């Protein structure tokens, strides 16, 4: 394979430009599924769709609340801290027992909202916490992409020998790629990995 004088011709995108779709591992059938959202970081609009087993989930249905109390006891003035986790609805009040003076009183909590994830560890999508489908190991490094558009942009950059800066206004997605992806000695191995991921 030859890469002589191939100029990178991609757009001056940032990673956020690709964060409206994630290809993930379906939690039910373990095949490729899609997590899509209206706009990057609008996680509540996220939707999981598997075309293999027909699983469909909406992020809004997985919203939970931690009811948190952090107050000063009105009787002994010591700090009161309590958390009632994983509530499907907001709590209007929770009963708190002061461990210092034994006062028992209802307080209005702060309801901290979050989306219940399948997994919080590993390389996952940020909405449902499912493993990214497009990931593999290349020479001891984890190579990953959010979706095919993201993967193709990385592939275009890696296969190019002429890489001119596209804008001076900000740092683009390809400029922030890990060094092992930019290293020309890894080019063939990375493009081979791209082919395998596209064939999954």
Would you write up a description of this structure?
By secondary structure, this protein is of the alpha+beta class. The chain contains three helices and eleven strands. The longest helix is centred in the last third of the chain and has 13 residues, at 187-199. It comes from Dyadobacter sediminis. This is TFIIB-type zinc ribbon-containing protein.
Which keywords apply here?
TFIIB-type zinc ribbon-containing protein; 28% strand; alpha+beta
Distance between the termini: 22 Å
Sheet with the most strands, sense and barrel status: 4 strands, antiparallel
Strand content: 25-35%
Query: pLDDT average, as an integer?
Result: 93
Shape: elongated
Count of helical regions? 3
User: Which percent bin holds the helix content?
Assistant: 10-25%
* Helix-and-strand structural type: alpha+beta
**Regarding quaternary structure, how should these chains be classified?**
single chain
Adjacency order of strands in the biggest sheet: 1-2-3-4
Work out the number of β strands: 11
Protein name: TFIIB-type zinc ribbon-containing protein
């Amino acid at each position: 394979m030859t890469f002589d004088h191939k100029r990178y011709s991609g757009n001056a995108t940032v990673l956020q430009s690709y964060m409206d779709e994630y290809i993930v591992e379906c939690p039910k059938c373990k095949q490729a599924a899609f997590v899509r959202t209206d706009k990057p970081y609008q996680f509540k609009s996220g939707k999981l769709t598997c075309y293999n087993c027909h699983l469909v989930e909406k992020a809004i249905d997985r919203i939970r609340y931690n009811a948190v109390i952090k107050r000063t006891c009105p009787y002994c003035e010591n700090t009161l801290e309590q958390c009632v986790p994983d509530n499907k609805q907001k709590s209007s009040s929770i009963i708190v027992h002061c461990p210092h003076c034994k006062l028992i009183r209802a307080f209005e909590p702060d309801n901290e909202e979050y989306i219940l994830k399948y997994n919080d560890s590993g390389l996952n999508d940020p909405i449902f916490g499912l493993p990214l489908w497009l990931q593999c190991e290349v020479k001891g490094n984890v190579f990953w992409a959010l979706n095919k558009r993201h993967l193709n942009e990385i592939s275009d950059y890696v296969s190019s020998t002429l890489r001119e800066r596209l804008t001076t206004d900000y740092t683009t997605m390809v400029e922030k790629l890990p060094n092992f992806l930019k290293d020309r000695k890894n080019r063939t191995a990375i493009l081979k990995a791209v082919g395998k991921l596209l064939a999954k």
